[in-house]
Design a protein that fits this description.
Rossmann fold; binds guanosine-5'-diphosphate; 6-stranded parallel beta sheet; alpha/beta
């Protein structure tokens, strides 16, 4: 695979940035990393041009139109339309250009809102996803349906992965619109810098989540691209359960914040438990996401401190 020409779409996003860095440091020399500045993938003409300009052998397709829950609520049509169009054109042109491998990711949010944890891959179509982001989540889930449709009709070797709740360098650190880990890192860091007496965190602290370090996901994608040729969906996560309370204490300690922590129980807890079943990842990829939460948080916090404020994505 090191001699193949590998096209990475969405290469300036959170996962894309980490994947490209990881591939480069693992000795991949023939990577073509593109973003929406290079090709607007919502225009089929540009998708065609991308394939004829680059002529890749392998495609790792990470481009997506993404946003937080609030943006999803306000622009459901855009989230549905753009992701469906981007994915439809990209896999279609990849197939027409005869690429030998097509790798795509869908979201953990694509699973049914009522899926039982640990969430098994087979439950994908057993219910409707969380209402607010369903137009996005189902557009992403169609990526899996299309991967197998193109595999069955055109022999495209298309595989689909589901990263869990990722965190790490290059994430979105918006104080209110980000996911819990980057949101808290930013809040505790700024509270420490400004000597604030308290930090407000949301909910009761009792929900649990399965957090996965983004570099582990990058490594899993490389492993899957190199070794997995099957049609089964595979969760990529740590499979370990952490309560929001434990998370808050760990972040606060790592940042060295000495003030008070206040729980704002008027803010939503969300799902009480969201953990991914990682059995398939172990058996089909022979892979485990092995970064301990504390170590991953430490690396993320150091990266944040070194890049704050100008190198931080909002
Ligand atoms: P999701 O609920 O898995 O989609 O992901 P989130 O990352 O948005 O939230 C996870 C949990 O963290 C929820 O129980 C929130 O109530 C809790 N939480 C605590 N403080 C924050 C915060 O500052 N931002 C976010 N996003 N969540 C927080």
């Amino acid at each position: 695979m090191k001699n193949d020409k590998i096209l990475v779409t969405g290469s300036t996003g959170f996962l894309g940035t980490n994947l490209v860095k990881h591939m480069e440091s693992s000795g991949y020399k023939n990577i073509v990393a593109v973003s929406s500045k290079d090709y607007d993938l919502t225009e089929q003409k540009e998708v065609r041009k991308m394939f004829s300009d680059i002529e890749p052998n392998i495609v790792i397709h990470l481009a997506a139109y993404v946003g937080g829950i609030l943006a999803n609520k306000m622009y459901p049509a855009d989230f549905s339309y753009r992701n469906l169009v981007i994915n439809t054109s990209t896999i279609h042109e990849a197939s027409k250009h005869g690429v030998k491998k097509f790798v795509t990711c869908i979201g953990g949010c694509s699973y049914p809102a009522k899926a039982k944890s640990p969430i098994a891959e087979n439950s994908l179509f057993e219910g409707y996803p969380q209402n607010e982001s369903a137009p996005y989540s189902l557009a992403k889930a169609m990526g899996f349906v299309q991967a197998n449709a193109y595999r069955n009709q055109y022999n495209l070797n298309a595989i689909t992965l589901v990263p869990g709740n990722m965190y790490g360098p290059h994430d979105n650190f918006h104080p209110n619109y980000s996911h819990v880990i980057p949101g808290l890192i930013r809040r505790f860091y700024e509270a420490k810098m400004n000597d604030l007496p308290e930090v407000v965190v949301w909910g009761s602290g009792t929900p649990t989540r399965d957090f996965v370090y983004v570099e582990d996901v990058a490594e899993a994608i490389i492993k899957a691209t190199e070794t997995y040729d099957g049609n089964e969906l595979i969760n990529i996560s740590s499979g370990t359960e952490t309560s929001i309370r434990e998370l808050v204490e760990t972040i606060s300690n790592l940042i060295g914040y000495g003030g008070k922590i206040v729980w704002d129980t008027t803010k939503p807890d969300g799902q009480m438990r969201k953990i991914f079943d990682t059995g398939r990842m172990k058996s089909l990829l022979n892979f485990e996401c092995s970064t301990f939460l504390k170590d991953g948080l430490e690396k993320t916090i150091r990266w944040f401190e070194n890049n704050y404020p100008n190198g931080i994505r909002l």
